[in-house]
Amino acid sequence: MPALVVAGNWKMNTTVPEATALAFGVKNGAAAVTGVELVLCPPFVSLSAVKDAVAGSAVKVGAQNMHFQESGAYTGEVSPGMLRGLCDYVILGHSERRQMFGETDESVNSKIKAGQAVGLKPILCVGETLEQREQGKAADVISGQVRAGLDGVTDTSGLIIAYEPIWAIGTGQAATPETAAEIMGGPIFETLRSLFSAAADSISLLYGGSMNASNAGEYAAQDCIHGGLVGGAALQADQFLQVAAAVASAKG
Ligand code: PGA
Fold first, then answer.
1. Residue nearest atom 9 in ligand 1 by C-alpha distance
2. pLDDT of residue 180
3. Quick one: three-class SS letters along the chain?
4. So what's the pLDDT on residue 171?
5. Is 182 one of the catalytic residues?
6. Can you tell me the mean pLDDT for 121-141?
7. How deeply is 48 buried, as exposed, middle or buried, from its count of CB atoms within 10 A (0-12, 13-18, 19+)?
8. Ligand 1 atom index nearest CA of 91
9. What is the distance between the alpha carbons of residues 112 and 90, in angstroms, rounded to a whole number?
10. 96, 103, 128, 164: which is the annotated catalytic residue?
11. Choosing from 94, 128, 218, 226, which is the catalytic residue?
């Protein structure tokens, strides 16, 4: 079975002191959750403080985005080399970045390769809009995003895919575990299989979109779901830890 992972996407929330306190809260409860990799993804400005806060524990740190160039005239951007040493993971292609900041499958693909080149583990996010789902296009959209995002990628170690239906993010309208599994065990897994053969079997697949302590166990009960990418429920340490505990117990 692929590694179990629960990642908290803090989005544009928390000041540095707030992020530090939240990270300490997770660290303090982390030992009680076994068998699940916990990843905290704060805003860039808090990466260093969160890294220091979780030092000495198994809790890992991730960034929420990254540029694919190593340096240069890209005002406001952060490069792969700047993240190396500060975090182990990087969320790439989140739907908010695709929808609000013009990210495309091509730029996401460049970022994945650039991240891997410096040893970062990419969490590639894919997901369909409500309109695409209603038009029966969800499977095609998702497999297209996976295929294009991973074009030319050969290293699957540390690669994670997060399925986040856009209509389920921050809405409280989570996809049912069956709907999520249909896409994750279907077009996502099949596309990974066609790209990477048997190596696809060890890629962790996370569900994201209104995941919380009450529903996390139902997702993890699905064979093809190995954890979650958690937004709102990651902003409170106890809730985030409960999500992870629910995943651990569903798989245990
Ligand atoms: P949510 O966000 O859990 O608040 O729906 C998930 C995400 O966007 O990663």
1. 231
2. 98
3. CCCCEEEEECCCCCCHHHHHHHHHHHHHHHCCCCCCEEEEECCHHHHHHHHHHHCCCCCEEEECCCCCCCCCCCCCCCCHHHHECCECEEEECCHHHHHHCCCCHHHHHHHHHHHHHCCCEEEEEECCCHHHHHCCCHHHHHHHHHHHHCCCCCCCCCCEEEECCHHHCCCCCCCCHHHHHHHHHHHHHHHHHHHHHHHHHHCEEEEECCCCCCCHHHHHCCCCCCEEEECHHHCCHHHHHHHHHHHHHHHC
4. 93
5. no
6. 97
7. middle
8. 9
9. 9
10. 164
11. 94
Clarify whether 96 is annotated catalytic: no
CA–centroid distance, 209 to ligand 1, in Å, is 5
Topology of domain 5-251 in CATH is TIM Barrel (3.20.20)
Give the span between the Cα atoms of 42 and 11, in whole angstroms.
7
From ligand 1's centre to the CA of 172, what distance in Å? 9
Domain residue limits, the chain:
5-251
Per-residue pLDDT band for 208 (boundaries 50, 70, 90) equals very high
> Ligand 1: residues within 6 Å at CB?
9, 164, 169-170, 208-211, 229-233
The pLDDT, as a whole number, for residue 179 is 97
Atom of ligand 1 nearest to the CA of 168: 5
Among 89, 164, 167, 242, which is best to mutate for testing ligand 1, by the most ligand atoms less than 8 A from CB? 164
* Nearest Cα residue to atom 6 of ligand 1: 231
4: which 2 tokens?
Answer: 């179990």
